[in-house]
């Protein structure tokens, strides 16, 4: 029996090959500060590197921008998009994807957990310590500032403030991921083509001539794993035509 992914390996390469797919949830850990990046309150303010444990505020979601590279828009826990402000500080304040920055993930080929992130201004993100004044004559060094002002030395040392460790904490699956990545128009067209060719009359002739009396047909992933149909998945999408 023909399978959608086996029959179209190039689509599998685009959607599945990259670990960092559309909708992937990640955490980012500064190797120099030994802290997780966090959007305070889940979004709406600055992104800092000052949390020792990763929970909701330290989890970000990727919006993949293309199929060939590692270009992403990034969302905080409460759906604000990440961008950089006039002071080159990383913030989670954009309420529209049109206001979001596009970030490129540069992955270390020898250790794929380590990445650098190139910001929209062409510079790299870095997490550095800053000095805060507690009393008039006492200064305390604290970790936390994340800015897009590093030229990056090329070193992947754990002392390099532009190096982060990335951990994938969740991903969309199956048809949900397909719809999210390609969008409604293209996903429906692809699925329509798939359903039109997945099982055809010749397949039943083969079954009959070989003494088979049953078939097993896989169903969409979301049917067995999610309560709600993806919004762009047929037949929810109005352009869908039954075959």
Automatic annotation (TrEMBL):
One of its GO terms (biological process) is cell migration. GO terms for molecular function: actin filament binding. GO terms for cellular component: actin cytoskeleton; cytoplasm. Signal peptide: none annotated. Residues 20-168 form the DUF7910 domain. It comes from the Eukaryota. This is DUF7910 domain-containing protein.
């Amino acid at each position: 029996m023909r399978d959608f992914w086996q029959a179209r390996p190039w689509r599998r390469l685009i959607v599945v090959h990259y670990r960092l797919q559309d909708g992937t949830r990640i955490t980012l850990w500064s190797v120099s500060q030994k802290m997780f990046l966090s959007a305070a309150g889940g979004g709406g303010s600055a992104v800092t590197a000052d949390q020792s444990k990763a929970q909701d505020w330290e989890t970000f979601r990727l919006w993949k921008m293309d199929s060939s590279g590692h270009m992403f828009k990034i969302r905080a826990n409460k759906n604000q998009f990440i961008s950089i402000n006039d002071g080159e500080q990383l913030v989670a304040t954009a309420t529209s994807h049109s206001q979001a920055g596009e970030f490129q993930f540069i992955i270390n080929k020898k250790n794929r957990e380590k990445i650098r992130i190139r910001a929209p201004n062409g510079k790299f993100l870095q997490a550095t310590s800053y000095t805060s004044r507690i009393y008039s004559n006492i200064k305390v060094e604290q970790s936390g500032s994340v800015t897009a002002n590093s030229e990056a030395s090329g070193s992947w040392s754990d002392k390099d403030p532009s190096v982060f460790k990335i951990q994938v904490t969740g991903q969309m699956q199956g048809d949900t991921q397909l719809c999210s990545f390609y969008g409604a128009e293209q996903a429906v067209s692809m699925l329509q083509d798939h359903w039109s060719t997945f099982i055809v009359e010749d397949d039943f002739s083969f079954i009959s001539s070989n003494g088979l009396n049953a078939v097993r047909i896989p169903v969409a992933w979301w049917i067995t794993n999610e309560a709600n149909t993806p919004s762009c998945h047929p037949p929810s999408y109005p352009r869908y035509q039954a075959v």
